[in-house]
Amino acid sequence: MPGRGERSDGRGSGERSDGRGSGRFAPSPSADLHIGNLRTAVLAWLFARSSGRRFLIRVEDLDDRTFSDVAARQLADLSAIGVLSDEPPEYQSAHADRYDSVIAELAGRGLVYECYCSRKDILSAPRAPHAPEGAYPGTCRDREPPADPARPPALRLRTDTFTYTVTDLLHGEFTGVVDDFVLRRGDGVTAYNLAVVVDDAAQRVDQVVRGDDLLSSSPRQAYLAALLGYPPVTYAHVPLVLNAEGKRLAKRDGAVTLAEIGVAPALRRIADSLGYRSTTLAGMLTEFDPAGLPHEPWVYRPV
Ligand code: GLU
């Protein structure tokens, strides 16, 4: 079974004393979890437990569009469906020192530069012929800071490749863009790509299960992890949940949160979507087979 036997032992300094790696679910508390998020959380738990890993929940609350009352409801909803963290959930907002010291390390290696570009500058800048679409064009890479900058700079990583390949349990080999991505935004907020890599390593996470909207971020993250000497992680990017119109499920679709659906019906719908008869997590674990997971998005229609 994929995942089984993939442990962090024998991988150098990242080794756990008990030899067990972790899986995790890492929601951003910007809105209540909907049934699609809950399904991803259930899958993350199933992947971790079926491969003998611990399971952790991490609150990704760095952005100023995240809220502590939403985080509390997300954690309560996860507990209600049985997705429990083996350790008290960690909050990214408590880890500023961790991110600062990694950025300082990268800067010490000459791998960080200041970027004064606005979004508009980036979109209108000429792109080198070999640079992939959507990549930062490298405008500030080797230029002196402007004498009178209009805004505080973002910090970017100086990379030496354009693409990087990761292996995903559902998608196989995936090659995606690695540009000089942002490590710290101009407003001082640590960027998601840096925080997620640093925290996964700090928490000995060696299995990342999340929505496949983040598949395209995984090459950047795996590249950064390798640059920092962190052990590689196993990825499983699971299909998103769509509404009846085939669009990403959203709160306005109605009856999508646990409060609206109810615990037992939500678990039944999630189990159903995965083809399981059991509607408890323990029961689903006995039926779980990563190789048999649907690769198509789940279309959710409120009843
Ligand atoms: N916090 C991210 C989100 O809610 C997920 C991060 C991850 O799983 O790597 O979209």
From TrEMBL:
InterPro entries: aa-tRNA-synth_I_CS, Glu-Q_tRNA(Asp)_Synthase, Glu/Gln-tRNA-synth, Glu/Gln-tRNA-synth_Ib_cat-dom, GluQ/Sye, Rossmann-like_a/b/a_fold. It comes from the Bacteria. GO terms for biological process: glutamyl-tRNA aminoacylation; tRNA modification. Residues 1-21 have a biased composition (Basic and acidic residues). SUPFAM superfamilies: Nucleotidylyl transferase (SSF52374). Keywords: Aminoacyl-tRNA synthetase, ATP-binding, Ligase, Metal-binding, Nucleotide-binding, Protein biosynthesis, Zinc. PANTHER family: GLUTAMATE--TRNA LIGASE, GLUTAMYL-Q TRNA(ASP) SYNTHETASE. This is tRNA glutamyl-Q synthetase. It comes from Mycobacterium adipatum.
